[in-house]
């Protein structure tokens, strides 16, 4: 029986951050000014081991989780990540095991991940011109490296591959049509994400948000679209189909059309802290429970935390945005 929270939402999706490190410095997630050479990342002993992550995942499955997404930071910078995938893929009850990655290490890893049991990948790609993409990833990585990663994922069967693009007004809005044009008629679906006030370091401002409806209007003016809606409970993206049969796009509208009412997502940071919302100010420590040897307590602790959950930050955003602390996106991976 799945555990439900105070708003009647079951816990169905677990997002596991396997590292707080990344080989990018995306300006809306991990700005270089903050996450520079003096930034203290988690030490080896602070990060959950694969064995511990598996125990946490099993305890969540016992509470109703069926979908696990591996995130970071950048999950592919964690060594031997395919060993963890193997462990998680072997858990009865996990019917969807996915990963969000920036894609540049996929050419080396895609086959091994697929063989280990990974179902699908979502690749972040915010623009198709190097000038904009490099300005956004802030480490000079060219678009071609990510395209190579996407192609490696498609040929390894890690599909349907999704591409996530965060749209910031005045920065990469020209990429909306370019991305649609590039991936229409392919096995890859583009999802446009509204720029969000995640964490406290990305200088978020409502004026920089390009609403999802404007994305739909711009693409629809070029290629007519029909709404598909959300077809699975808790689905993050609202889906739209090209009328000419060239596939779909998605929009994730946390700012202008929040979807907290159906939010079934729990998040674990790399140091074993449970967060019940992307915009949570604080979390719940599970690592000490893992390391003091008691397993039974873990399921009960997770159930108790989830039953006490009433998060709906995006619906309350206008009232709550000012200075409240929020966990960093790079610590829980979106
Ligand atoms: S703001 Fe929090 S509660 Fe709302 S959808 Fe996002 S993670 Fe879920």
Q: Can you walk through the features of this model?
A:
The protein is α/β, with parallel strands linked by helices and 334 residues long. It has a single domain (13-332), classed as TIM Barrel (Alpha-Beta Barrel). It has helices at residues 50-62, 81-89, 106-116, 130-137, 143-155, 175-183, 212-222, 287-291, 296-307, 313-320, 329-332, and strands spanning 13-17, 67-71, 96-101, 120-124, 162-167, 189-194, 225-229, 238-242, 248-252, 265-268, 273-275, 284-285. The chain is globular. The structure holds iron/sulfur cluster. Iron/sulfur cluster is lined by residues 254, 259-260, 263, 265, 277-279, 311-314.
Short descriptors:
334 residues; alpha/beta; TIM Barrel; twelve-stranded mixed sheet; 11 helices; globular; binds iron/sulfur cluster
In short:
By secondary structure, the chain is of the alpha/beta class. 31% of the residues lie in helices and 17% in strands.
Summed up, the domain count is 1
CATH class equals Alpha Beta
- Average pLDDT works out at 94
Q: Outline, from the CA principal axes?
A: globular
Biggest sheet record? 12 strands, mixed
**CATH architectural category:** Alpha-Beta Barrel
Q: What do we call the CATH topology?
A: TIM Barrel
Q: What would you report as the Rg, rounded to the nearest angstrom?
A: 19 Å
Helix/strand structural class: alpha/beta
Bound molecules: iron/sulfur cluster
Question: What does the secondary structure layout of this molecule look like, with pairings?
Answer:
Layout: E1 13-17, H1 50-62, E2 67-71, H2 81-89, E3 96-101, H3 106-116, E4 120-124, H4 130-137, H5 143-155, E5 162-167, H6 175-183, E6 189-194, H7 212-222, E7 225-229, E8 238-242, E9 248-252, E10 265-268, E11 273-275, E12 284-285, H8 287-291, H9 296-307, H10 313-320, H11 329-332
Helix pairs in contact: 1-2, 1-9, 2-3, 3-5
Bound molecules: iron/sulfur cluster (SF4).
């Amino acid at each position: 029986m799945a555990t439900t929270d105070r708003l009647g939402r079951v816990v169905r999706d677990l997002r596991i951050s396997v590292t707080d490190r990344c080989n990018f410095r995306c300006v809306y997630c991990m700005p270089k000014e903050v996450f520079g050479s003096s930034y203290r990342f988690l030490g080896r002993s602070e990060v959950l081991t694969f064995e511990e992550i598996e125990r946490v995942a099993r305890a969540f499955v016992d509470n109703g989780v069926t979908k696990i997404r591996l995130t970071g930071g950048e999950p592919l910078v964690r060594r031997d990540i395919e060993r963890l995938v193997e462990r998680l893929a072997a858990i009865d009850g996990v019917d969807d095991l996915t990963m969000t990655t920036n894609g540049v290490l996929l050419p080396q890893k895609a086959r091994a991940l697929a063989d280990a049991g990974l179902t699908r990948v979502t690749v972040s790609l915010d623009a198709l011109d190097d000038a904009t993409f490099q300005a956004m990833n802030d480490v000079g990585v060219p678009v071609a490296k990510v395209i190579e990663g996407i192609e490696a994922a498609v040929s390894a069967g890690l599909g349907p591959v999704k591409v996530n693009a965060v749209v910031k007004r005045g920065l990469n809005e020209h990429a909306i049509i370019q991305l649609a044009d590039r991936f229409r008629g392919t096995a890859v679906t583009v999802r446009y994400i509204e720029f969000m006030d995640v964490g406290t370091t990305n200088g978020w401002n409502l004026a920089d948000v390009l609403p999802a409806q404007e994305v739909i209007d711009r693409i629809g003016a070029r290629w007519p679209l029909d709404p598909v809606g959300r077809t699975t409970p808790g689905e993050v993206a609202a889906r739209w189909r090209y009328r000419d049969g060239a596939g779909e796009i998605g929009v994730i509208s946390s700012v202008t059309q929040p979807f907290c009412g159906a939010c079934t997502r729990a998040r674990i940071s790399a140091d074993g802290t449970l967060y019940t919302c992307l915009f949570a100010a604080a979390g719940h420590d599970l690592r000490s429970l893992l390391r003091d040897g008691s397993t039974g307590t873990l399921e009960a602790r997770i159930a108790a935390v989830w039953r006490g959950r009433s998060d709906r930050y995006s619906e309350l955003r206008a009232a709550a945005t000012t200075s409240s602390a929020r966990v960093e996106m790079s610590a829980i991976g979106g």
